[in-house]
Design goal:
Nucleotidyltransferase, domain 5; 4-stranded mixed sheet; 3 helices; ribosomal protein; Large ribosomal subunit protein uL18; Ribosomal_uL18_bac/plant/anim; RNA-binding; ribonucleoprotein
């Protein structure tokens, strides 16, 4: 029986997250969510269960509200790197969820790495 696209996405997301939990070594998780119009990212401490920092294209302070392009994702990546440094985090592991590592997701991570966040 053919599976729906949503079901395959959810299975891929769980598979990625379970593999990352085995190798995280106590580092915070940089979790990304991409929708048709926006992209958001959170820096999550799974041990304590708290979000340390977040950034999104929905924030007016970033000046990219409503833009769903690679440049907007790069600004979000730079913002999360800056906020992670201010939260005292310099190293994290990347949780791409069920999203493929290209386009906006790749631009976000590359900008976070350029901002000084070790991923």
């Amino acid at each position: 029986m053919a599976q729906s696209t949503r079901t395959m996405f959810l299975k891929r997301r769980l598979r990625v997250r379970n593999k990352l939990r085995k190798v995280n070594a106590g580092r915070p998780r940089l979790s990304v969510h991409r929708s048709g119009k926006n992209i958001s990212v959170q820096l999550i401490d799974d041990v304590k269960g708290v979000t340390l920092a977040s950034a999104s294209t929905l924030e007016k302070a970033l000046g990219v509200v409503g833009k769903n392009n690679v440049e907007a994702a790069a600004k979000v990546g730079s913002a999360i790197a800056e906020r992670a440094r201010s939260a005292g985090v310099d190293e994290a592991y990347f949780d791409r969820g069920g999203f493929l590592f290209h386009g906006r997701v790749k631009a976000l991570v590359d900008a976070a790495r350029d901002g000084g966040l070790k991923i």
